[in-house]
Amino acid sequence: MWNIEEFAGAAHDTVDSLAAYVSESQAGPSPVLTNPPPGELAARLGLDRWIREGGMTGETYRGFLDDYLATGTRVHHPGHLAHQIAAPFFPAALADFVHGAANNPMALYEMGASAATVEFAVIRWMLEKTGLAGQGGGVLTHGGSLANLTALLAARAAAAPDAWRAGTPAGELALLAPPSAHYSLARAGAIIGLGEDAVFEPATDPLGRVLPERLPDVLDRVRRAGRRPMALVAGACATGTGLYDDLRAIGAFCREHGIWFHVDGAHGASALLSERHRHLLDGIETADSITWDAHKMLGTSSLAAAVLVRRADDLDRAFRQEASYLFYGEQGFDTMGRTIECSKAELGLKVFLNLAWYGERGLGEHVAARYATARRLWELAAARPGFTCPYEPQSNIVCFRYGGPDTDQAAIRARLMAQGDFYLSSAEIAGSRYLRASVMAPATGDKTLSALLDAVARAGS
């Protein structure tokens, strides 16, 4: 049984430590990341001793937590510009705390009625925003990779209804996905038995965007290979560049040829909440399935992602399984039949509490502000000598280079990380390596952007 007094004391200490940590991170004086060697870090945290001996108390826990937080990555830091992970809003953090104590895995309704009902409401809201309300359905998963896999399972069920029992037809189906598609899609294709040879790449422009007028070419290649298309993937937006495909034109092609249309909106679907940016998703309502991650631009902690489908029955057909200890005939409000996961966290609560605190308008303003900051970075970089920007950003992702064609961008990134003030990622575009900034933290502003470009120039020199 819990020692309630001990829990309450440790919880208060946790809140105090986290509040100080986030406050310090947002202010930016500390390094954005600290990456000591694993052995050194394990010794500092006393991992082996705690595992072997136990005995942690409230006092020793406070010391451990402070060391633990100090040696991680500060996503709230203005210099955190590397990956598409939210600086989570505090309501989502509260939801994680609630789930950690209540622990209601709610894929079975009877195991967490309130958590399941909240998720239903969040899914209905997402379906409305994407234009799939009515016959549509969906479910939340632990991440966009699982959401993409679930969507392709639904597409496979539509293309090969007997695949769950008999297996994926060998050499028969094809997945149409551009090189810019998230790696989880090709991985999902392999998992469901298509194999790498089944992935056909449609023609793209030099920035990796699908060329709708060239889609007949890839369809012809698929047919000449003796296959038929299972699904076509479009990016909204692409992970590497943050650029959006032409969803309207691609969706029209898919409707004309009876091809399942999957929109990977894991990162960029949140622009639906911004009046200034929702046009980027024009045509998303033509999709058969959509992935939308809340732990990117909706400010939840990792992980919380939705897979949405035009017809709820397609998601129900993705899985065909029996388990007498879980499925008792009519499933009613159970979502276990729609997910890979059996025990699923109370993911909807994170999204709901952010909405309850800030509303659609507040979340939309958050998206718009991050997109605006990225555009500001592009403007500043384009105006400086030595910097090259391959495109005008459409989202909160910006790619740029410093120096000449032989300047090692990876080395610049490594120097920045070693200094600890800025954390960037990198991407390849048309065969060239670029530095890549994902503006996620609300604390990132003009002062940070100018200091970043100064640091890049120094590191590149």
From TrEMBL:
Cofactor(s) needed by this chain = pyridoxal 5'-phosphate
Sorted alphabetically, which keywords does the UniProt record give?
Decarboxylase, Lyase, Pyridoxal phosphate
One Pfam family cited in the UniProt record for this chain = Pyridoxal_deC
Mark the transmembrane ranges.
Answer: none
Q: Which GO terms describe its molecular function?
A: aromatic-L-amino-acid decarboxylase activity; pyridoxal phosphate binding
Q: Read off the Gene3D superfamilies from this record.
A: 3.90.1150.170, Type I PLP-dependent aspartate aminotransferase-like (Major domain)
One GO CC annotation: cytoplasm
Is Cytoplasm a UniProt keyword of this protein? no
One GO term under biological process is:
amino acid metabolic process
Residues annotated as carrying N6-(pyridoxal phosphate)lysine in the record are K296
Give the family from UniProt: Belongs to the group II decarboxylase family.
What name does the UniProt record give this protein?
Diaminobutyrate decarboxylase
Instruction: Identify the species of origin.
Output: Spongiactinospora rosea
